From TrEMBL:
Listed Gene3D superfamilies: P-loop containing nucleotide triphosphate hydrolases (3.40.50.300)
Domain ABC transporter: start-end pairs: 2-246
Name assigned to this protein: Iron-regulated ABC transporter ATPase subunit SufC
GO molecular function terms attached to this record: ATP binding; ATP hydrolysis activity
């Protein structure tokens, strides 16, 4: 599904990603962990196609296409979902209306008929049950005045509605309480399927008490310095990141 090879990326002339290699297959959940400032959010942003990052070397292929050649909108249409670290607020636009447009754009890109109001509502009702989101939240302006937990729930609801093939969730390093983490984890678990994959970026070991990743990778100083299964996350919980820093090759 996704193959990242020797990816180097810079921002404002400073190299942040220094040769990332990662392969993600359908059905897999990958956790990317690592100390603050390692480049986790940069990696997520590069995959989403945010413009301020310059790719200086390497390649990313997604479903056998060059992902880096696609603009962010095309990526979304082809099934890449990035839950932004700080979701945007859109005053005056309800979550429902925002999603209706987004869902129909994705459907159009996939050669499917647009959903009419009735089918869209039916689809919403089904997904609301899965994500356990309240109708009232969906009628409010997108993200405006949402609590951290509400933003998270809304983000996961968007993911459920858009039915992405590859989801990239970048979790903030602070400000998320345990309930918000559970919402994210629960959503990822429920939406997991044999055809879809997720990359969950997190500073927190705690999130991985609720999501069971198939692979855990530690990003440090712009490189993946260690990969393993969920036991690596437990080891990090116990020992912190200092031993990783000591073991990491100098770059
Ligand atoms: P993490 O998510 O692992 O905490 P980031 O990817 O946010 O790490 O940041 C990695 C490094 O890149 C940091 O030193 C950060 O200051 C720098 N960086 C990231 N984005 C930008 C940007 N838009 N402009 C300048 N520096 C940036
Ligand atoms: Mg950070
Ligand atoms: Mg980050």
């Amino acid at each position: 599904m996704l193959k990242i090879e020797n990816l180097h990326a810079s921002v404002e002339g400073k190299e942040i990603l220094k040769g990332i290699n990662l392969e993600v297959k359908p059905g897999e959940v990958h956790a990317i962990m690592g100390p603050n400032g390692s480049g986790k959010s940069t990696l997520a942003s590069v995959l989403a196609g945010r413009e301020e990052y310059e790719i200086t070397d390497g390649s990313v292929s997604y479903l056998n296409e060059d992902l880096l050649e696609l603009d962010p909108e095309e990526r979304a249409h082809k099934g890449v979902f990035l839950a932004f670290q700080y979701p945007v607020e859109i005053p005056g636009v309800s979550t429902t209306n925002f999603l209706k447009t987004a869902v129909n754009q994705v459907r159009e890109a996939r050669g499917l008929k647009a959903l009419d109001a009735v089918s869209f509502l039916k689809e919403m009702k089904e997904k609301m049950k899965i994500v356990d989101i309240d109708q009232a939240l969906l009628s409010r302006s997108l993200n405006e005045g949402f609590s951290g937990g509400e933003k998270k729930r809304n983000e996961i609801f968007q993911m459920a509605m858009l039915e992405p093939k590859l989801s990239i969730l970048d979790e903030t390093d602070s400000g998320l309480d345990i309930d918000a983490l559970k919402i994210v984890a629960d959503g990822v678990n429920k939406l997991k399927s044999a055809e879809t994959a997720s990359i969950v970026v997190t500073h927190y070991q705690r999130l991985l008490d609720y999501i069971v990743p198939d692979f855990v990778h530690v990003l440090y100083n712009g490189k993946i310095v260690k990969s393993g299964d969920k036991s690596l996350a437990l080891e990090l919980e116990e020992k912190g990141y200092d031993w990783i820093k000591e073991e990491a090759p100098a770059v």
